[in-house]
Amino acid sequence: MARSINLFSTLYRVVQKKFIDDGCPALNRPANGGNSGSCTSAVVGQSCSFTCDTGYTLNGQSTLYCQAGGRWSSSAPTCTAPSGCSDLNPPAYGGLSGQCRQATVGQSCSFTCQAGYTLTGQATLYCETGGRWSSSVPSCNRAAPTGCASLVAPNGGYMLGTCAPGRVGETCVFGCDEGFVLRGQRTLACEGGGQWSTNPPYCQ
C-alpha cells in the first residue's frame, strides 16, 4: 500500500513539474506592431504584451499570460490598418481646404497662410496607406519685409536712389538746395528688418 502511495506521489510530482516547467510557445510580433515581455521563452505565470504602430488598431488582448499546460491565455492579437487619416486643423494664421477631415487613402488637404505670412512645409498633404499623412502640418510664419517705408525729400532739399519705397540692401541719398545745410546722415540704408538705418536728415 505504501509503495502504491509513493508511486502515485512520484507520478503526481512528474506531471505537476511538467505543467509548471513546460513553457509556452514563442509569440511573434504582429505585422505593423511589436511585443515585449516574456514572448519567446515564457514559463507559467509570465506574460507577453502587444502594441501597434501609430495609426493601427490592436485587435485582441493586449497582454497574454502563459498558463499551465504550455498554453497562452488567448490567441495573439493583430494590428489593423485604419481606413482613413486623422483630422487636420489649420495652422495659426492660416487656413485649409480639401478633404482635411475624415479623409480616406488618396485624398488630400491643402494649406494657405494669411497675408503677411509665408508657408513653411508642404502646401498639400496626402492621406496614405496606414492612416498616415504624407507630411506634418505646415506652419505660417511672418514674412520677412522686402522693403522700407517711402521717404520724403526734406524742405529745401532732394533725395536720390531707392527712396520711395526703399528696397532691402539699397540706399537713399539726401542733398540740400543751394543756401541750405544738411543736418543728419546723408545716406540711409534699407536694412533687413524693413527699417531705415537712421532717421532721415533735414535741410536748414
From TrEMBL:
Residues 22-81, 138-204 form the Sushi domain. Gene3D superfamilies: Complement Module, domain 1. The keyword Disulfide bond applies. Disulfide bonds join C52-C79, C176-C203. Keywords: Disulfide bond, Lectin, Repeat, Signal, Sushi. The keyword Signal applies. GO terms for molecular function: carbohydrate binding. This is p-selectin. It comes from Araneus ventricosus.
